[in-house]
Amino acid sequence: MKYCLQLLSLVVCCALLSGCGEPTLDASSQESIEASVTAMMEELDDSEQTQLQQAIGVVVLKATTENIQQAMNGTTMTAERIQADMYTSLDGKTAQEIIDYAAQ
Question: Fewer CB within 10 A of the end CB, N or C, for the chain?
Fold first, then answer.
């Protein structure tokens, strides 16, 4: 029983600590994307804000290019699919992860 309580305490602490840290991009809706980008920007200095804005632009361009290539290969592309592809690549990433992803 004591072991179970210790394990439960550890799980609760981990859950609480996982809420701490850098904000991440929530791509579940357009509104949540805007809110999470705003939250990320508030944590960054001017230089980092510029890097994040440029990185998001690069990711959007990469996703657009990939979708154009797929369309040229005969895949039916819809606006919803293009948006979903782009959002999926950014969902859950911190500002630094987005910047690193864009640099790849």
Answer: N
Torsion of CA 15, 21, 23, 28, to 10 degrees: -20
Q: What is the pLDDT of residues 7-24, one digit of tens each?
A: 334 333 334 444 568 999
Show Cβ contacts of residue 96 under 8 Å, excluding neighbours closer than 6 positions: 22
> What is the Cα–Cα distance from 36 to 25, expressed in whole angstroms?
5
Tell the residue number behind the tokens 């230089």, with chain if given.
47
Q: Are 22 and 43 in contact (CB under 8 A)?
A: yes
CB 91 within 8 A of CB 26: yes
Question: What's the Rg (C-alpha) of the chain?
Answer: 18
0.90 exceeded by the pTM?
Answer: no
The count of other CB atoms within 10 Å of the CB of residue 68 is 12
